[in-house]
Write a structure and sequence with these properties.
Elements: H1 3-16, E1 23-28, H2 30-33, H3 43-58, E2 62-67, H4 70-77, H5 82-88, H6 91-114, E3 120-125, H7 127-131, H8 133-148, E4 152-157, H9 171-181, E5 186-191, E6 196-197, E7 209-210, E8 212-213, H10 218-223, H11 237-249, E9 253-258, H12 265-270, E10 277-279, H13 289-293
The chain binds glutamic acid.
Glutamic acid (GLU) binds at residues 29-30, 68-72, 98, 156-157, 159, 170-171, 233-235.
């Protein structure tokens, strides 16, 4: 068997084990929460997301949602045009949008999850939460208690007060930090990105899709380094690969997948379907999160 076929077999076999993962972090990007045509909230997809996560919960998993979309929901509520917002908006206006939108987003999530009998909680964090040992411990204690109580924590960066230089900026890295701090064994990054290609598929039509990354070597890291973000969110492939570094080194499998066919994809991923790119856990001896935070 050649190396490519051997990797494909290994990928299929490894993915079968995903259904046994116990603690799952799901990150949803702004682009997956909005209608492409109008950049307004897609309530249908939000409802499916709530159903999928509630079902995972009912299967006995610990479920943590890291949701972007605060700024997007605020911009929508304040009736700002997406292009104007992206190109001309000052930081204080963006932060005001995030403040309006975060509350709105939680209201929408709470309603959606209530349909499936699930309680949710809002957890807002910052870079300092992940770097300060006391804050880190507080976060862990609170989240552990929420999970013990059967609540689904919904995490975002505290955008309305984060400063430009000291914010994490994208929820790809934030979700990997959460996965690492909470000892999750699976992280699923959902956005409008299908996964890793050998080159940026928007610029190179010969770029090949990669389903399985057993070890995150320089060769893979170089594949995404020039890519840019999508229309609504902030993270591109480079931030997703950095998130994969954190996840893998902390012993957590990570999958990048697209919601082009809807947020229902979560069920198939956890069932082991060959969707998106799987970055296999590759636990680093003496893993130290602060070293990775310095790179963000
Ligand atoms: N925290 C930002 C928000 O909720 C999103 C960051 C990102 O796009 O990754 O609007």
């Amino acid at each position: 068997m050649d190396r490519i076929s051997a990797l494909a077999v290994e990928n299929d076999r490894y993915r079968m084990g995903l259904r046994d993962r116990k603690r799952i972090v799901i990150k949803i990007g702004s682009s997956s929460l909005l209608h492409k045509e109008t950049a307004r909230l897609d309530y249908h997809q939000i409802d499916i997301l709530a159903r999928e996560l509630s079902d995972l919960k009912n299967r006995g998993k610990d479920v943590i949602l890291v949701s972007s979309g605060a700024a997007a929901a605020g911009r929508e509520a304040l009736k700002m045009d997406l292009d104007v917002y992206k190109n001309e908006t000052e930081m204080n206006v963006k932060q005001a949008c995030a403040a309006v939108g975060q509350a709105r987003l939680m209201m929408i999530y709470q309603k959606a999850f209530e349909e499936y009998n699930q309680l949710t909680a809002q957890v807002l964090m910052s870079r300092a939460t992940a770097s300060n040992p006391t804050s880190k411990e507080n976060l862990n204690n609170t989240m552990t208690e929420l999970l013990r109580l059967g609540v689904i924590p919904i995490v975002n960066e505290n955008d309305s007060v984060a400063t430009a230089e000291f914010s994490l900026g994208d929820n790809d890295n934030l979700s990997a930090i959460v996965a690492s701090l909470m000892g999750a064994d699976l992280l699923i990054l959902l956005s409008d990105v299908r996964g890793l290609y050998t080159d940026d598929p928007r610029r190179n039509k010969d770029a090949q899709f990669i389903s399985y990354v057993p070890h995150l070597t320089e060769q893979y890291l170089n594949m995404g380094k020039d890519s840019t973000g999508s229309g609504a969110g902030t993270g591109g492939m480079a931030t997703k690969l950095h998130a994969a570094k954190i996840a893998a080194a902390s012993g957590c499998d990570m999958i990048i997948a697209s919601t082009e066919n809807g947020t229902g994809v979560i069920y198939d991923i956890v069932e082991g379907a060959n969707i998106g790119t799987l970055f296999r856990a590759d636990k680093e001896q003496g893993f130290d999160l602060s070293r990775y935070l310095d790179e963000i």
